[in-house]
Amino acid sequence: MRYSSTVSPKIEPISQRGLRADGPRICPIADALEIVGERYSLLVLRELGFGVTRFNDIRHNTGAPRETLATRLRKLEEAGVIERRRYSEHPPRDEYVLTEAGKALTPILGQLRRWGEEYANDGPSTPATK
Questions:
Q1: How many Cβ atoms from other residues are within 10 Å of residue 17's Cβ?
Q2: Dist. CA 88–CA 73, nearest whole Å
Q3: How far, in Å, CA of 97 to CA of 50, rounded?
Q4: CA-wise closest residue to 101 among 31, 8, 12
Q5: More exposed terminus of the chain, fewer Cβ within 10 Å: N or C?
C-alpha cells in the first residue's frame, strides 16, 4: 500500500537556514505517524506482536476505551498493517493479526520499548528492582 507522500530521489531545495523553499518537507516518518503514531495504535501493535489477537483481550491489556480501540483497529486494517479474521460465525467474532507491514514494525517497537526503559522511566522493571 502506498501512503500519502513519497520521498523524492531529487535533492530537496533548502535555504541557508535549512528550510525547504517550497513548503514542508516530504517525509516518510510523517507518513508512518499518520498510520501508527497514535498511542493506542502502537499499543495494539504491541499486543498483536505478543500474540494477543481478540478485541476484549487487546482492550484489557491496553486500557483503550472501546470506541477508541475500534477506531484504531479499523484505521490499522484500512492501512494494511493488520488483518481481521473471523474465528466464530455464531456469534460473529473476529481476531486481528499483523500483516507483513505490521510485522515489519516489530523491531521498531522493540527499539521504542528499549528507549522507554532507558529514558522514559527508571529503567527496566524487574522483580529485583520493584
A1: 5
A2: 18
A3: 11
A4: 31
A5: C
Q: Is residue 65 part of a domain?
A: yes
Tell me what percent of the chain is helix, strand and coil, each rounded to the nearest 5: 45, 10, 40
CA 88 to CA 120: how far, in whole Å?
40
Main-chain dihedrals φ then ψ at residue 44, nearest 5 degrees = -60, -45
Rounded CA-CA distance 58/64 in Å is 8
In a domain? residue 83: yes
Query: What pLDDT is attached to residue 2?
Result: 46
Q: Residue 35: which CATH number?
A: 1.10.10.10
List pLDDT tens digits, range 41-93.
Answer: 999 999 999 999 999 999 999 999 999 999 999 999 999 999 999 999 999 99
Domain total in the chain: 1
Q: Within a 10 A sphere around the Cβ of 6, how many other Cβ atoms?
A: 10
Residue of higher predicted confidence among 48 and 126 = 48
